[in-house]
Specification:
about 100 residues, mainly alpha, 5 helices
């Protein structure tokens, strides 16, 4: 269990350092027209819930429509409630290419 936690922390550090999972910031909120709190919650869902089953994907590798399809498919498997699903999708679409 400890090894899994260490591996997850290392993956998150590598992903956030490389820009693979950009931080939600005022510029992203302005550009997307989304509330910064929603984007921050969505990023948190991505970096905590999604890593329970797989490595994080580079957010910019998919477009907004692609993320919509993935979230629609994965949210039930991850047992995300509606708010978490909505926040996650808002973040991914705001950070997408």
């Amino acid at each position: 269990m400890r090894a899994a936690v260490v591996a997850t922390v290392m993956c998150l550090a590598a992903c956030t350092g490389s820009g693979a999972v950009p931080r939600a910031d005022a510029e992203m909120a302005t550009r997307s027209g989304q509330d910064l709190n929603i984007l921050s919650r969505g990023r948190h869902v991505y970096t905590t819930n999604c890593t329970g089953c797989h490595a994080l994907y580079r957010v910019a590798d998919r477009n907004a429509e692609g993320w919509r399809d993935i979230v629609a498919s994965m949210a039930p498997k991850a047992k995300l409630d509606e708010r978490s699903r909505s926040d996650l999708l808002a973040y991914l679409q705001a950070a997408a290419r």
